[in-house]
């Protein structure tokens, strides 16, 4: 609860609402004007939500999970208690997932439902894929927030350069992209999410799990070894 | 209770540097049950030393042991250590009681009686249900102290605990610390104010520029400090006559005239100098403009002890 209370400030709630409403609003406008099959799943869900909105939403929450505590020096209140470091990291990580996953999954499901292609279990597939992405991003950005005070800057460069640009055009990099893990997971449930660069569900889930575990362990290691002022 | 025989805290050849900046340089000392004050000017390395004793900062060299165990990475040791760092940090959305309760739960305790005792010791019963964001600085210090002692630690590390407290709270705090020390606990208190430590500690560690300048009984070190020569600048209309008159005083060690025409006096008895200077000025018909200490900073006071 403490991690959740610290992660979700009023300012962050406002930002999350804006980041959620933006693609939904765009989806409503496109739905009433274009109304072609795949328009919402492609450019809005894939191009905007999964490539930009989702990673930025998770980044804002996860980098602040430790970043804010380092900045306001409250981290020592936790680290001078007999609490295993991994439980502190898990609490921070879980706080991000608990807030971002339902929000982003709902946005993805609604946009998919609005698309004429989004029938059957397509909304569920979009939601599951997004949750996988939230978990992987949350782990990576929690580490980044503990590593540097400029986590937001580095995170933005990573999202816009690597996830949104390089892995979109260089097929060999898709196995190293959280965005691909999201599409791969959704594609494994419903093939409406298939595109040229989509990877299969198994490597997508394995990749997401590896990213999550590796960055979680790196965060625990960092918290155990860093000087806390 | 602390370890039956050994020291509560052992600091051996500890250094800490950040890049080219040396924060602590080859410090070695032991801390035993009772109250020990870490005294030094701001930036002397007190907080870095305390942070290493808390396991929050890793020494670049040397070792810190608390209650016989290596403190770095030893999470279980925090059940026996209470920490209150210098930074005035709390969770402002929590009430004081919730803050202390959280500290207890993080210690693995679900004991409301312990929370009551800690809040009572900090004398914050009336304000315990208010959000800490509404607390005064002194109240914030006290609720943080309650959080540090709720698990009744054997070693209590308090960094500048009297910051922001009023005189009455200082007296209460001194009583509180004295009570804890009679229970066999080792209490470390840092301060940059000599009088604060004098009121609390039996033994002091004097830290200057990252080095341990002196360690031992407070009164012996205080005597050394009081013996040091003070440098005083005196402004007068007849500087040469005034200087000649001053140098004849027993209290004065040496006199010189600086470039601006002021008289610089070294004395071991400032009070005597202050009493005599106006009388001398009157005797020689000089006007006395000012008498001001030149080196009364803590840094210079502590540096004197280092040089000795």
* Number of domain units of chain B: 2
Order of helices and strands of chain B: EEEHEEEHHHEHEHEEHEHEEHEH
Number of domains of chain A: 1
CATH topology call of the largest domain in chain B: Rossmann fold
Shape estimate of chain B: elongated
CATH superfamily of the largest domain in chain B: P-loop containing nucleotide triphosphate hydrolases
Oligomer: heterodimer
Q: Radius of gyration of chain A, rounded?
A: 18 Å
The low-pLDDT segments of chain A are none
The parts of chain B where pLDDT drops under 50 for at least 5 residues are none
Strand content of chain B: 25-35%
Number-wise, the strands of chain B total 14
Computed structural class of chain B? alpha/beta
Biggest sheet of chain A: strands, sense, closure?
none
Structural account:
The complex is a heterodimer of chains A (about 230) and B (about 300). In chain A, about 80% of the residues lie in helices and about 0% in strands. The two termini of chain A are about 25 Å apart. The longest helix of chain A has about 35 residues. Chain A has about 230 residues and is mostly helical. Chain B is α/β, with parallel strands linked by helices and about 300 residues long. A six-stranded mixed beta sheet of chain B has the order 6-7-8-3-9-10, with helices on both faces. In chain B, α2 crosses α3 and α3 crosses α4. The mean pLDDT of chain B is about 85. At the A-B interface, α1 and α4 of A face α2 of B.
What is the topological layout?
The complex is a heterodimer of chains A (229) and B (308).
Chain A lengths: L1 H6 L2 H24 L6 H33 L2 H5 L5 H30 L7 H26 L3 H19 L8 H12 L11 H25 L4
Helix pairs in contact in A: 2-3, 2-5, 3-5, 3-6, 3-7, 5-6, 5-9, 6-7, 6-8, 6-9, 8-9
Chain B lengths: L8 E10 L2 E11 L2 E6 L6 H8 L7 E6 L2 E2 L10 E4 L11 H11 L5 H10 L15 H13 L5 E5 L7 H16 L3 E6 L2 H7 L2 E6 L2 E7 H10 L2 E7 L2 H9 L4 E6 L5 E5 L2 H15 L3 E6 L4 H10 L1
Parallel strand pairs in B: 3-8, 3-9, 6-7, 7-8
Antiparallel strand pairs in B: 1-2, 1-4, 4-5, 9-10, 11-13, 11-14, 12-13
Helix pairs in contact in B: 2-3, 2-4, 3-4, 8-9
